[in-house]
Amino acid sequence: MSLLPDINELIARARADLRMGVPLVLETGTEAALAISAETLTPERLGDLRQIGDPVIAITARRAETLKARPYDGDVARVLIPRDTDLGWIRSVADPADDLITPMKGPLNSQRGGSAALARLGIALAKSARLLPAVVLVPITEGARYAADFGLTRLNHALAEPHLGERSVMNEVVHARLPMAASEAGRLHIYRPEDGGEEHYAIEIGRPDRSKPVLARLHSACFTGDVMGSLKCDCGPQLHAALEHMGREGAGVLLYLNQEGRGIGLANKMRAYSLQDQGFDTVEANHRLGFEDDERDFRLGADILRELGFSSVRLLTNNPKKIAMMEKTGVTVAERVPLKVGETAYNRHYLATKAKKSGHLL
Ligand SMILES: Nc1nc2c(ncn2[C@@H]2O[C@H](COP(=O)(O)OP(=O)(O)OP(=O)(O)O)[C@@H](O)[C@H]2O)c(=O)[nH]1
Ligand SMILES: [Zn+2]
Prior knowledge:
The protein is of the alpha/beta class. 39% of the residues lie in helices and 21% in strands.
């Protein structure tokens, strides 16, 4: 019956539920749990979860490292929530904002044994919902009954897990002429993924020859830099310099990928900025929040380029990972074109950290 939502549609629903603080029913073949994002959990729902069983908060090993909690599950830790704690305690495990003021939340005890599959699934969903990677879970016995009685989204681990690591098929929705300051011969294409995720944009300049390497830029969204003219990064100047370069040559393609904050979303990026104000660098801040340094998937850039008919690029970048990922996904990088613009007194340390820790070329 095609009217039933498929697994991608259920995942999209689950993302929206987590953002709204609605519980999910997560299941493997043998166990089930209710899962709520630690960020959007309310005191009422925490109270109700406690009526059902003893909840744990699942965090990433990155966050666990900062909190000195044992990640018995490798990349994930399931931290026991003591009975006498309130929502503030749960939030402070999830959110590093007050780490320096109240460094001791523990000792934190992590759950050992049993499967961490549902914890891992919950965290992956929270990341894809651009929330803090922390989820409160309570075991239940009858997943189907909870889902039916309360109208909750029910996700099976074995079905959902492969889709969370995969990038979705992307379809062009529309394209139209867009005269710009950098070039009057602009054209904007909108791509919409089938998994209900973010749309991405391709700005084509001129009519690039598909049989030759095209001057290309994979630009990740940066609201603060691109729109507000933030001095903390080099994104705005890079965006404009790339477009101007393409305008001068009369041909090029710029992909504007909605992977704000290296894939963690704007709210989490601002949390990272607040940590940077406390003295942590851009990489340390991501780790304290529980993220990897870079959560982006550049393969989708290669997918869009191929959709547009390009198989070879002259890539404007200083990031070797973008080059490696393009090549791995079957788009040849015929040349790397450096893009060094926009250094300020505010971003000098940020750029130096990217060079030192993330392998960016100077
Ligand atoms: N998490 C986090 N993201 C940041 C920070 N500063 C900038 N960003 C994001 O980093 C991304 C910048 O990406 P790109 O312009 O593709 O830069 P890049 O990976 O350094 O590669 P090239 O510019 O091609 O050399 C954007 O998504 C920004 O929003 C930060 O301090 N923390
Ligand atoms: Zn930026």
